[in-house]
Amino acid sequence: MLSIDRIAYQSKLVNVAPEIKGIAYLVLLILMFQGTPLIQATLFAILAVVTIYTANITIKRYVKWILLPLPFILISFITIIFSVTDTDTNLLVSVSVFGKYMGLNQEALPMAYSLFFRAIGCLACTFLFSVSVPFNQMLLLLKKCRLPSVLIEITMLMYRFIFILIEETANIYHAQQMRYGFRTLKTSYHSFGLLLKVLFVQSFDRYEKMVVSLEMKYFQGDFPLH
Q: Using alpha carbons only, what angle is made at residue 1 by residues 161 and 125, rounded to the nearest 5 degrees?
């Protein structure tokens, strides 16, 4: 079981109806998209505290979660505020290069701030939803939303194969480590190539075993959800 699933099943909100959590998630996302940076920052702080408390995780762990996508958000922030123009009229700080002015666009700062806090706020909403809704509840929520059964079944199978890939990757990697497969850069490249090759073969083998198992249980082409 993935750590995020373990956290979700142990969450203080696990017994709350998934419909309520789904509606709350959508409402929070709307507030994050429509609110001002001050509202977004305030909601982010509140959601961070609620997530840490209900999921029984440490502040350090939550900060690590936030830091993972933070570089991509910062790249977007810098891209918006950085401009190249013919004049330095609207530039807060500028440098002249080959007759052009490169610097920080003062007019783009409000939009960049709004984008930054909106992205961080939406991340906080998604983290709270992820650690409070186990996967079985998520499938029921998708069914309540009247999504096609095929889409729900594909989601369930993809989720299952995530565990298969992680398990097979860990087993192969540990076996290679025990044989000093990553001792040098050359052996690391070689071992990584072998890992991908064996992982591909093992994944198909596990898939065929799963198909045989389903056929033995008289699988009719659908997974009933209750």
A: 90
Quick check: 203 and 168 in contact, CB under 8 A? yes
Selection from 67, 159, 171, 161 nearest residue 120 by Cα: 67
pLDDT in tens, 23-70: 999 999 999 988 888 899 999 999 999 999 999 999 999 999 888 888
Instruction: Work out the angle at residue 137's Cα, subtended by the Cα atoms of residues 136 and 141, and round it to the nearest 5 degrees.
Output: 120
Query: 162-181 pLDDT, tens per residue?
Result: 777 777 788 888 888 887 77
Single pTM value for the model: 0.72
Q: Helix, strand or coil for residue 105?
A: strand
Amino acid sitting at position 27: V
Instruction: Name residue, tokens 């909601």.
Output: 43
Query: Are 134 and 9 contacting, i.e. CB atoms less than 8 angstroms apart?
Result: yes
* Alpha helices (runs of H) in the chain, residue ranges in sequence order: 3-9, 18-34, 37-55, 59-67, 70-81, 109-130, 135-144, 149-178, 185-216
Token pair in block for residue 104: 């920080």
Q: What angle do CA 182, 183, 187 make, to 5 degrees?
A: 60
C-alpha torsion sign, points 40, 42, 44, 46? negative
Q: How far is CA 130 from the centre of its chain?
A: 9
